[in-house]
Structures are given as structure tokens and as C-alpha cells.
Amino acid sequence: MEMFYYLVFGALAAIVAALELGKSGKDRVATSPAFNSFKNNYILVYSLMMSGDWLQGPYVYYLYSQYGFDKGDIGCLFIAGFGSSMLFGTIVGSLADKQGRKRACVTYCITYILSCFTKHSPQYKILMIGRVLGGIATSLLFSAFESWLVAEHNKKGFDPQWLSITFSKAIFLGNGLVAIVAGLFANFLADNMGFGPVAPFDAAACFLAIGMAIILSSWGENYGDSSDSKDLITQFKGAAKAIASDEKIALLGAIQSLFEGSMYTFVFLWTPALSPKDEEIPHGFIFATFMLSSMLGSSIASRLLARKLKVEGYMQIVFSVSAFTLFLPVVTNFLVPPSGEKGGSISLGGCLQLLGFCTFESCVGIFWPSIMKMRSQYIPEEARSTIMNFFRIPLNLFVCVVLYNVNAFPITVMFGMCSIFLFMAAILQRRLMVVSDLHRSTKAVEMAAEDEPLNP
């Protein structure tokens, strides 16, 4: 069965290479040198920020276990991280609109660097502080950078369609290639060089510091609504009012929470799903395969966006496929007889699930640039960071509940729940397309009426 992993990885690599090298004129958009310089600067910074995040991932749980903490203690640390992102991260992330997005990005770097430093301490309280800081940093990572990019892109007068190029390329590199390289580099530092599980966190701090230096030296500042008359409470009320009064924004927030909640749950479930009888599986190699699948998805997304296909249309298919792939563990549990003995190589059911999980990761790769595109269209500029952090409240609450009850339900029930959520996301995406089309047609009629000359 070991050859199976190489076949899957090789096939995915060949497809990604063919898609990237075989782009035609329809798949490429003519841009300006000024935009290319701006795009490359952002992608470099975003890749450095994501490398700081990806380097830590493979060794967080292992480091805590090396310090002697059991599964329950480690679970509490993870819950603290998501809870911090939900509570403190929402407040800090929302300040970006008022205090400046560039400043918020620098705050992300400083906060995450401090979180990395706490990993040198075996004391539970210090590690808990590190998780709280990491939760705040995560909220900033997924709101401040995108908000800065959209505002700066518009301020420089670039074509709005070009945003899709930056989004898809940032995801292709930052969430794909960088993740693979970061995982291998972390393994090299910790195991091959013998520096131990803290080394990847030190490397992450270095990458974050380099990215912060580039931000400070080359980025301009931009704001949402920076008026002194608006305090944080007023800002929250304005964001809540925007969500409540505009069905498109509310639908977008619900779609994002449903998909990302299922995605984060998948992160905790894929290992026990592939090795229910303690089968020996190459975790690092499978992780790299998932990231390659994500690269495939972002490459597909770049083609779809370049051809100006309606995002609201094709994302219905993406969510439906995602729902099917996460329902596979439920199906294989009933149709494929499990292996009776413990250990050994991956089972037939595990192989089928791995193919399904790779498909799901491809859907994740399509999701990121597509949801970014929709957010740039529907979320008002003056409260962009605040609303984006509001979207993360139900997401983080959902993940905290899942983590707290992860041992209370069979794994098939958890996957079935995720599949239902993804199907709901597909239905809401359909509703979003209907509402947005109605809004566009109404706006077109109003503009036509205004342009019509008055009859004498």
C-alpha cells in the first residue's frame, strides 16, 4: 500500500504542473507593471506570514506532549486558542478599521512572535498565555491582511478584477507550496538537525520578523472608518447593523462559518479516520499531499476567476462536492469491512477516504480565493475588518464545542455533521446568487431610469 501514497502525490503533482504550464490566453489577464510589483510585494509578505504559521503546525501537539501534558490538558490549550480568537481576537482585529490595517498586520507579527517564544517554557500557564496570543494573531492573519490588500488595491486605482489574481496566487503559494516546504523544513530542524520540537517555533519567529520588516518599510497605511466619534462599541453596532440589514453579507458570513467550521473539524478527524486500527500512515507525507491538493484547487480557481465565471454559481458545486467527500467515511464504514487486526498498512477503506480527502482539500483551495473575491464585493470598506472578525465568532465557537466533545461522538457522526453543514452552505450559496442577481438587476433598472431623458 505504500506505493499508493506516491501514486496519489505524483498524479496530483502532474495535474498541478499541467494546469500551471498549460494556461492559455483566456486563463491569463493582462496587467500593468505597477500592479505586478504591488502583487509580488503582497504575496512575498503573505507567504512569510503563512510560513510562520505553517512551521508551527506539525509540532504543536507533539511539543505539549513532550512537556508531559496529557490529551485533556492539550485539548484545553487548543480550546483556549480558539476561544481567544473568538473573544480577544474579535476586538483586536476590529481595531484595524480604526487604528490602521498596516498597524494591525505589524501587531500580528509581534503577537505571534511572542507566542512562539512561550513555547520554550514547560510551564502550563506560560503555554496558555502563548495560546491566547496565538488566537489573537490568527484573527489578525485572516482579516487585517486581506482588508489592507483590498483597500490599497482600490486606493491605487487598479482594476477590481485583478484582485482575483492576487488572491489565487497568494493561496497557491502561501497555503500550498509554502505549507509543503515549511512542513519539510520543520521536520529537518527538529529531527534531522536534532534541534528538538522548539526549533520550528524559533524559525517561525524569524520569518515573521522578516515579514514585519518588509511591511514597515514598504507598506502604506489605510483605514476603514477612522473618525474619532466612533468608539469600539459603536463600531460593533455598525457592523452588526450592516450584517442584519444586508442579506448578502449575512449569507456570506453563514457560508464562511459553515465551511471553515467543517474544515477545522476535518483537521482533527483525518488522522483517526485513516488509521482507526492504529495503521501505520506517513502523517507528514499525507499532509504534503493535502497541501498539493489545495494547490490544485487554487490553480483551478485562478482559471475560473480569470474567465470571469460567476463565483456564486460555481461555489454551489464546490460545496456540494465537499459535502460528498466528507460523507465518504460514513459510507466506507458501512460498505467496506474494517480490518480485524491492529497496526499494518492503510486499509482499502482508508485509501478511498484518502482520495476523498484530497478532493476536499482541492475544494478548500478553490474556496479561499473565491470567498476572498466575494468578501471584496459585498463587505463595505469602512467596517471590513470588523465584519470579517464577526464572521469568525460562530466559527471559533463551533470549533471549541467540537474540541470539547471530540470523544463524545463516533467519528462517523462527526463527519456526517460536517457533510450536512457543507450541504447547507451549498443551499445558502444558491440563495446568495439569487439575491445578488436580483440586486444587480434592480440597480440596473434604477440606473437606466436615471439616464432616461425627461419627457417634455
Automatic annotation (TrEMBL):
Residues 1-18 form the signal peptide. One of its GO terms (molecular function) is molybdate ion transmembrane transporter activity. Keywords: Membrane, Signal, Transmembrane, Transmembrane helix. One of its GO terms (cellular component) is membrane. It comes from the Eukaryota. The chain crosses the membrane at residues 42-64, 76-96, 128-149, 170-189, 201-220, 285-305, 317-335, 347-368, 411-428. The keyword Membrane applies. InterPro entries: MFS_trans_sf, MOT2/MFSD5. This is Molybdate-anion transporter. It comes from Miscanthus lutarioriparius.
